Request: fold
Amino acid sequence: KLDKWETRHGLGYTTITAEKQGLQIEITYLVPVNDPVELWKVRFKNTSETTREFKSFAFTEWVVGDQFNEDNYRNIMALYNRGYYDKELHSVIVHKEPTSTRTVTGYGFFTSDVSPEKFDCRKLSFLGQYRSWNNPIAIEEGSCKNSTVNGEDMVGVLQHILSLQPSEEKE
Reply:
C-alpha cells in the first residue's frame, strides 16, 4: 500500500504522484498537439534521511500496425513483430514486417535521455513463463535480460539504476 497517491488531469496531460517509504515518484504523460508521440516526464525524490538506491523499469507494450488485426488475429500478427535495442540512440526500436497484402509497416521507439543499464523487447523475457503483470520475473529478479524480439509479443522496457541522497531529486 502506498503512503500517498495523487493524480491530476489537465488539457493534454496526466500527472500521477506516489510515495512509499521515503521515495516519491511523479510521472507526467503528455501528447504534443503537432507531434505523433507520447512524452513521459519522470521525477524521483528521496524524502527520507538516508541515501536511497533503487532500480526503475520504464515499460510499454506495443501494438504496431492495424489495431483491428492485432485484436482479432494476435497470434498471426505477432509473427511479423521485430524489436531490438539501438545502443547509439539509447532506444528500443520496433516495427512490423510488411506482407504481400499489407505493404505499409508501423514503427515505434521507446527512449530515455538517460542511457539504461538494461532493456527488454520480448514480452515473455520480461514477464516470465506462466506469469502475469502482477509478478514479472524481471522485476522479481531485479534485472532485464537484454532481449530482442522476432515474431513474438513485443514490449519496451528500459531499466535504470538510481541513487539519491537525502532530499535529492532527479528527472
